From TrEMBL:
<protein>
    <submittedName>
        <fullName>Crp/Fnr family transcriptional regulator</fullName>
    </submittedName>
</protein>
<dbReference type="InterPro" id="IPR014710">
    <property type="entry name" value="RmlC-like_jellyroll"/>
</dbReference>
<dbReference type="InterPro" id="IPR018490">
    <property type="entry name" value="cNMP-bd_dom_sf"/>
</dbReference>
<feature type="domain" description="Cyclic nucleotide-binding">
    <location>
        <begin position="28"/>
        <end position="77"/>
    </location>
</feature>
<dbReference type="InterPro" id="IPR000595">
    <property type="entry name" value="cNMP-bd_dom"/>
</dbReference>
<dbReference type="Pfam" id="PF00027">
    <property type="entry name" value="cNMP_binding"/>
</dbReference>
Length: 197
């Protein structure tokens, strides 16, 4: 039985006819992932894309000083992968880890090729998703170097509603490129402004 969120992604985002979705079931696998379990580690070559059916994942790197840098969170309905490793067959520089017990749908190389042969419009829609992903990464890099911590935090809240209730504050601070103490100050200042309004 195809997973509900993944079913919605295939039909609503990629345009696979809903009565033909069972065609896809032989091209992916569903996996239950425990909290703190890794689905990708630095140094491994990835051939997979991970769709989050339920739960929460994060992708991060570790610098030479041992400090973690969160690149992306992936709650329900999100896709996460090391695209560089996957497309160029390179060793990954990242870790992908479950923050919560999660159910993920794993698609490997060839999944979208199979879909595109059956439904040619899928290739174009998948390419648009890739371009949108690149745009979001560029916007994120620009925000890290040109916006204030408060602006980045407010953008985070728009992008990831309710994630502050699910992810540890230090992980959110890492994603924002600030210390947990700075994040606490930003949140207090925003609460104060809201109270004064």
């Amino acid at each position: 039985m195809i997973q509900q969120n993944f079913r919605n992604h295939l039909s609503q985002i990629l345009g696979v006819p809903i009565n033909n979705l069972d065609f896809c079931t032989s091209f992916y696998e569903v996996k239950e992932v425990k909290k703190n379990e890794f689905i990708l580690r630095e140094g491994e070559v990835s051939d997979a894309t991970f769709f989050v059916e339920k739960g929460l994942l994060r992708m991060y790197s570790i610098d030479k000083a041992g400090k973690e840098h969160v690149i992306q969170f992936a709650p329900e309905g999100w896709i996460i992968s090391d695209t560089t490793s996957q497309l160029l067959n390179e060793k990954s520089r990242f870790y992908i880890e479950a923050i919560e017990e999660s159910t993920i749908v794993i698609t490997r190389d060839g999944f979208f090729e199979h879909l595109s042969k059956e439904y040619p419009e899928v290739a174009e829609k998948n390419q648009r998703l890739m371009f949108n992903h690149i745009k979001n990464l560029q916007n994120r890099v620009n925000a890290l170097i040109s916006t204030t911590a408060e602006e980045r935090y407010l953008d985070f809240l728009k992008k990831y509603p309710n994630l502050m209730l699910r992810a540890p504050q230090w992980m959110v601070a890492s994603y924002l490129g600030i210390t947990p103490e700075s994040l606490s100050r930003v949140r207090k200042e925003l609460a104060k402004k809201k109270f004064e309004i």
